[in-house]
Amino acid sequence: MKLEVGMYVRTDKGFISQIKEFKEHYTKGKRLVTSSKVKEVDENYLSLSGNQCDFIDSIDYSIPPCYPSDEEIEKIHQELKAYWGKGKVADYIPALAGVEPKRYGIAIETLDGHSFQVGDADIRFSIQSISKVFALAMVTRHLGDRIWKFVGREPSGNPFNSLVQLEYEHGIPRNPFINAGALVVTDRLMSLYEQPKDAILQFVRSICGNDDIYYDKHIARSEREHADRNMALGYLMKSFGNMENDVEDVVDVYCHQCAIAMNCKELTRAFLFLANHGVNPFNQEKILTVSQPKRLGALMLTCGFYDESGDFAFRAGLPGKSGVGGGVAAYIPGNLAITVWSPELNRHGNSLIGMETLERFTTDINNSIF
Ligand code: GLN
């Protein structure tokens, strides 16, 4: 009988020995009556299935291939150029309007040290809302679950900058990835750090192992000068008592975090700590507790792409985050991180080609979080 494989889990040696016992049962021809523990993949990873009550026919020790070849990535890259011209570069922040629409880069890095890149993976762009993941990780580190008193964790089903829900939900934003929620997170971050801009930059530099990451001041200023909607969100929340700092200051820090300039390679590296269960793979620093990466990943999957989150989860099956600069960063826990950059956006404000690329990617490698 065939055994269904559910997921890979990093585990400890104690659990491995349990699996060994199961293998002995198997070799004695006994029936497996457990709901999980089944197949050993290597000494750090186990493949588990849920609710199975089966005989094991064979134990496969090979690690399934979880990333494509350079040729396959190049093929996706070439094929998706056919979508050029079908989206639109963000122009509500004037400094973003000048970006070359036909930029297209992909960078992938696995936890076991493989990396792939193609196209414009070395060119820096404005990470915009992808920064919301970094700010949330920083705040989660300090406040833990206390942050969920001030911001929800449900998909909004609304555009990223919508004001509507906020009024009838009494100034508590639906989730930390719509602009209102991100402003609350930035506000709390400002209460936690004396120099929040320095702290954010420092955090991002440490998780991608690169001290050159900087704020693109030109973009920060441009967004700050056109931030009426974010200011409105901030003042509305302030009126409900859900903003601790001066709204102008919060919006200023928020515009800076959005204006961080990074390339696909750097963003991919910055997402690897999430794939690595909250531990920075470059210096082994434990950034998040065991359950925090679960929370961040669940939020990215359900809310990371605003009112396109369900569709993206359906198509690509990855936790990830987009930004109006055209970047999309995503990851497979225990395995890899990937960033795609293509500045033309779809009607939801997500990178049109970025989303397509990730759908192709998980389909081609036959691996997602599901
Ligand atoms: N800085 C942008 C804004 O506040 C971020 C939006 C986004 O990337 N979706 O509008």
In short, what is this structure?
The protein is of the alpha+beta class. Helices cover about 40% and strands about 10% of the residues.
How are the secondary structure elements laid out?
Elements: E1 7-10, H1 13-27, E2 39-40, E3 45-48, H2 70-79, H3 94-97, E4 105-110, E5 115-119, E6 125-126, H4 131-143, H5 164-168, H6 179-192, H7 196-208, E7 214-215, H8 217-225, H9 228-239, H10 247-258, E8 260-262, H11 264-275, H12 291-303, H13 309-315, E9 320-322, E10 327-332, E11 336-341, H14 352-365
Antiparallel strand pairs: 1-3, 2-3, 4-5, 4-11, 6-8, 7-8, 9-10, 10-11
Helix pairs in contact: 2-14, 4-6, 6-9, 6-10, 7-11, 8-10, 9-10, 12-13
The site of glutamine has 11 residues, from loops.
Can you put this structure into words, describing what you see?
By secondary structure, the chain is an alpha+beta fold. It has helices at residues 13-27, 70-79, 94-97, 131-143, 164-168, 179-192, 196-208, 217-225, 228-239, 247-258, 264-275, 291-303, 309-315, 352-365, and strands at 7-10, 39-40, 45-48, 105-110, 115-119, 125-126, 214-215, 260-262, 320-322, 327-332, 336-341. It is 41% helix and 12% strand. A five-stranded antiparallel sheet has the order 5-4-11-10-9. A three-stranded antiparallel sheet has the order 1-3-2, with helices on one face. A three-stranded antiparallel sheet has the order 6-8-7. A hairpin with a 3-residue loop joins strand 10 and strand 11. Residues 1-63 have low confidence and may be disordered. Bound molecules: glutamine. Glutamine binds at residues 128-129, 160-161, 179, 223, 230, 258, 323-324, 349.
